[in-house]
Amino acid sequence: MIGSGFGHSYINKRIEMGFDIMQTALGQKLNLVNLALYNKVIWVSVFRRPSLKTFILDLVRQDQLFEQGIDEDGDVIGTYSEFTEALNPEKVAGTHYTLKDTGDFFDSFYIDVFPTYFEINANPIKTDQDGDTENLFYKYGEGIMGLTTESMDKLSREVLRLYEIEVRRLLKI
Predict the structure, then answer these.
(1) H/E element, 110
(2) Per-residue b or e along 74-96, where b marks 16 or more CB atoms closer than 10 Å to that residue's CB
(3) What are phi and psi of 128, to 5 degrees?
(4) What is the model's pTM?
């Protein structure tokens, strides 16, 4: 291309590179930047999977509450007394609370996913046969919905596995 500027003639020549920049070390770095931009997309995609949501909720409901009766700090939330056992033989004195009496609390658990985090939510209001209500969060603390260190480790391994699958899917490898 011939042109002029400031009283001088100039010529522009288009030069094409004989290689694909994306196949170089710079291209790999650009891919990493691209991946960082997609991180939120990957996060949301992974955490919106029904199988992962079930996995997380099972860590809390099954592994922590039902099997161990513990909150997010690993503390036992309570044990049944002899009086309770006399009223309901299924609740053996000295065994931990499960918070699964009617199943309503367990069934109310759900997960909200945001671009950089997720929340475990549940309805803590329990109504007994007489119509009296109590808030399980006030009684046992909101930690009954949290994840212990052990559960977080299990979740981390599962998320890494799913992340790898999702990244491979996005990169088509």
Answers:
(1) strand 110-113
(2) eeebeebeeebeeeeeebeeeeb
(3) -90, 180
(4) 0.76
